[in-house]
Each structure stands twice: as C-alpha cells, then as structure tokens.
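ok so for the tutorial part 2 we go from a plain amino acid sequence to predicted structure tokens. step 1 is just haveing the sequence, like this:
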Amino acid sequence: MDAEVVSLPPDDGSVAGPEWADDGPGETHHHSRAAHHTAGEHHTADEHHTAGEHDTTGENETRDKSESPEQTQDARELAARFEEEKPGRVLAGPVGVLFTGITVAVGLLTLWQVFFPLAQGSKYYLIFFLAGVLPIVFLAYPSGVRLRRAKADAADADDRRGPTPVDWLLALAALVVCLYPVLPVTIGAGGGGYDAFLDRQGLLDPLDVAFGTGLLLLLLEACRRTTGWILPAVCVLFLGYGYYGGLLPQSWPVAHAGLDFGQLVDAFYNSDSGFYGTPLDVAASYIVLFTIYGAVLNLSGAGRFFVELSAAAFRRSRTAAGRTAVASGFLLGTVSGSGAATTVSIGAVTWPILRRAGYPAERAGGMLAAAGVGAILSPPTLGAAAFIIAEYLGVSYLQVLGWATVPTILYYLGILLSVEIDARRSGVRPVVIDTGSAWRLLARFGYHFLSLFVIIVVLALGASAMRAVVIATVLAAVLSFLDRRHRLTPARLVEALRDGVRGVLAVSAVCAAAGIITATTTKTGLGPQAAALLIDGAQAVSSEPAVVLALTAVLAAVALSLLGLAVPVTASFVIGWVIIGPALLNLGVEAPAAAMFVFYFAVLSEVSPPTALAAVAAAAVTGGRLVPTMWQTLRYALPAYLIPLAFVITPTGLGLLGIGGAGRIVTAGLVSALGVAVLAVAAGGWLPGVGPAGVPERIVGAIAGLVLLWLEPLPMAIGAALAALAVAGVYVRRGAAGHPGRPAVEESVDLGEEREWDGSTRG
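step 2 — the prediction. this is what the tokens look like for a chain of 763 residues:
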C-alpha cells in the first residue's frame, strides 16, 4: 500500500513546545491566550476519529500536512489550558517592556545570589525576590472575576487589553507590603529596617500586623489567579484552624491552646517557617534557575531534537509508534518538571503516527499522559517538591536524583511493556518512520545532552545544585551557536530570562502561600497529632507492626491522592510532608523513603481521576473520550502507584532508592522489575511472544505482581511461583487455542521533508 506522510512542524528556529517549569507551564504558552473552552470543546484535526475510524485515505494525508503549522499553536494553548497554572495575559507595548525589565532584573538578582550571596542572609534575599515576582503576578494574570456575564470573545479581549486599574493597585500594594520589612524608615513603633523588624519577632507592632495581613491577602489572591480557588481555600482552612483550634474540645487529638491573629501573622510574616520559609527559598534559589535553564535549552532547539531522536531510534521497529511516544516523554522529561505540558508537546507530534498505527484515541491518550507525567519523576530535573525534599532532609540534590533513578526506570519499563502488549493484543499495525539515521542525528545535535551531563558531573564534584544549573545554562547558551537558527543572541537571552522568571511566578505564589500551612502546623503541633490519628486508624485493624505499617502506607497513599486532586503538586507535597510524613517516620520508615513516598503520590494527582490534568490534555490532543483516556492512563502508570509502597513497607525496598548496598539494590530492582512485568501482563491481558492471557491467568498474575513488591524472602518466593503459574497457564491456553496472530500491514510514515545535514538544517 502507498506510504502515508506525517510531517513534523517546520523547524524555523521558533520554539515548538511549551517552556519547562514546575507545577505549571513555562512562558511559551503565555504568548498565546488559551481559548475559553473545555476539553470537550477543543477541536483538533483528529477529533472525529474514534476507535473504529482510523482511515487511511488521501484526505487524511492532506489534512495532516495542512495541520502541521497549527500544531505549535495547539501545543501552547493546550499546555496553558490543562496545566495547574492558569493561562496568563499577553503583555505588549510599554507594559510588556516593563514586565520584561522586571523579570530580567529578578533573573539577574537570582544569578547574583548564586555567586555573591547577600550578606544579610537568605531571608533578606527572599524579601526582594518576592517583591519582584508578586507584583507582576497581578499584571500577568487576569482576575477572572467579572460583575456581569460576558461572551467568551469579550472576556478574551478584556484579558488581552492589559492590566486594569485594580491590577495596578494590587501590584503597587504587593510591592509595598513585600518591601516593608527592609524599608529603613521608622513609622511610629514600626518600620526601621530589616534588623529592627527581626528584633520585633514575637512582639509585632500593630503596623507590622497590618502589613503582614496585607501580604497574606495578596498571596491568597495571587494563588487564586494562578491556580484557582482550592489552594486559597485550603490556606484559609489552616488559618481558621490556627485561630479557632483553641475552641475545640480539649479531649480531641487535634485541639490546641489557640493562637490570636497577631501570633499567626507573626508566624507567617516574621519567622523562618512562614511566607519566607523553605518552599519559597526553593522557588527563589533552585526552581527559577531551572526554569531559566529550560528556557535556554528549549530556545536552542533541544526539544525538537529529543522528539526527532526518539522517532529516528525506533523508526523500523514493530512498535515504532508507541516507543517513539514513550521515548519522547522520557527525553523531554530530563529537562521538564511539567506533566501536562510534556504530554501536549509529545502528543502534537506523535499522535498522527499513533493514529496511523491503529491506536484508538483513548489508548493513545493514556500512553501520552503516562509518558508525560514521567517528566516530573525523571532525573535530572524533577518537580519542585524534589528540591524541597533536599532542603527538608538536609541532603544534596544529587542524592535525591539517586533516589529517583530506579523508580523512574521501573516506571518507564511498565509503560514500554504495556506498549508492546497493546501492539500485539490490539493488532496495531507496524509503521516505518521515514526519518534520518539516529546516529547521524546524534552526531550533529547530540551536544544538547552535554549540559544535562554537566549538571550531574558538577553535582558529583560537590558543587551546589544552583551552581551546577548556572554552569549548564551557560554551556547550553554557548552550544546554541552550533545551529544558526537557534543561536541565543542577546535578544534571545533576554527572552530566556523573561520566560524563565515568568515560568516561576505561579509556583512562587504557591510556595509563599504554603508558608501559611507549614507555620500553622508548626505552631499548633498538628503534624504529630494527625500522624497519631493515622496510626491509630491502622492499629484499630491489627496490632502486628508490619500490618500496621502497610495499612498506614495505604491510608497515606489514599489521603495524598485525594489531596493532590485539589491542590498543585508542590502544595500537596508540603501538606503531605507535615501531616503524613510524621506518621511514616514514627513507624520506623527511613526519611528518604518517607519523603519520596509523599513526593510520588503528590505527583500522581496528574493522572488520578477525576482531575487527571495530563489525561485531560491528552484527550484534547487525540479527540478521545475523557473518562476512558483516564482509565487507560491509570493502566499505563500503574507501577508509579505501587513502587512507592514497595520502598516504604520493607527494609529491602530501600534498595529501590539506591540505599543499602549493591546486593539490596540489585535484589530490589530485579524483583520489582519482575513484579512490574507481571502486572503489565495482567493489566494488558497478553504475554509477549506467547499469546493472550485469560481471566484466571490475569488474576493470578496480578496477585503475583503485588506479592512480589513485598520485598521479603517468603513473599518474593510466593510471588515468583505465582508468576510462573500464570505464565504456564498462558502457554496451556495457547496450545489449546492454536498460535494466535494477526496479519500486519507495514506502513511508512514520513516525519518531514528530507533535510540536509549541514550547519544550518536539521533532519
């Protein structure tokens, strides 16, 4: 049959995908105001293709070619629509110049702090950082509140018109309340500069309380504008608990002595656990640098290179379409902390290939969402919560990367096995991706990997993560001159600084507001009290320590999953760590395992129904039905839900985090890999190389996989025996039914016009 052609978006030097930020997309999507529509209203060129409508007509071929120029725009808008961060304004003219100037100044201050820290300490720096980012939140993000109903077009026009007088007023108020602690002007008993402000800790002047209250309200409004109503509501709930908790019956475990409003504001405004606590310190010291690095790397053409390399590597394999999607997600994940944005980036390019191969829209969407969420779990750039882990536990970021390595391998192993199973069970057609040699592509553009390696090497040499990422950023900028269409000229460097700082606006507001939660928890002792309640619930079922730990871990996993549905990943981790972390630590779980457990389940909110932002984004790309896409995503992401339980409930499980010596690491890794493989077979209903698995074999396989993840000698032996029994059952079924097979028609998919391999073009 004639080969069909699917072209990549033209590589003209523009940014083809979303910038990378954590807990929200980066700047790129802000260039295009997202349309005011829901997932069900987003129409792609493939929208009307259901599971049974994968036609191969010339009309489709023509449409695929014509839609390519729009794919970049779609990716940006979808990233904006389906990330935790709400889309922002397009700022042009004098306001855009002012915005660029402020973001560049904040970026330069951040870089200065890395090599020449301010003598007054990190809190002093955080005051200036927040004074830089909080005011421009009100300029960059519309309020979304209107006194009368307006049509979508009118609302969009209102947002494009620029900041309103109210926005300017809020921005000015934010600047004043943020700078108040350092203003050297005495106002009655207040003011007087930074040292005088610190001296009043615990005895704030009424003026201090007034300014602290102002900052509290402005942070809540900033969170509402960037992430929605839920996180501000959670913060108000904690605030109410701190103020009214003294009125609760003292026999209740969560009751406390009570705090007056001045004490709460003091804890928020003038302590190291409030607004200027660890979460904001992480945003201002690490995340902003990584978002700048992501912007530089993306502007240098790395994103497109990663997708093209994935396509080239698997262009002639039987499951080329699925493998390309998964590999693209993994490679983009190395520099991404954003699940939905990565999903959209890889989906815009690989969905036409998946459709040609015969994947139903829902199954393809699940694969894309699961591969995209892996971005937040993949070294060397994890989500924001990973940097908070390093700060909370007092370890280097390199250690956190080490803890994440084996779970990441197991996660993508599960997805790849599911891809192989789907290809055989569903009769997916093999495709030949018509693109250049992977080795030639790697030889010409493999320099994009160098900055990633530099981060690891510099961290291994003992440097801080901040210095490592700055060095990697400089290297990426220098290497960009090897491709003339992606050279980082001074104007593009300014763009990268602007994009990087804008990408951290939402997470900075979230991190500062998280200080309300951490300070309230610290002042009231809520953490130990909630931990005791969680453990008591498990002990009500059994007194056996191992059972209590397992039940507590399951209850914690459920609680974290529900929490993650409501608030962004960073806030979910902070709340989970201060509330659930103590319960795991009290039961003897090692701190690294407890922290990574909370981290993983905070991240999994991206694929957990009913919100599942990554799955929603994937469904919008493929045009598939939303709920089936979510369930397919869960099937692909299953290892991510189970592996954290494995490294919490048994000491051997620490080997999955690279802790405990080579023997424990190898044992835990191999047994868990077997468990993941068996679970993939049970979920997919097919044993590669053999044939379909019936319901009995799938049930036995599922039990075997779960038992194998209990990394103790007896459960591992039982799990291995059950796995062997399931495999034997599949062989028996195959012998009884005859060798199954489906005729496969090989198709050729072209990823673009032939391009010359010289210094100015790419293939």
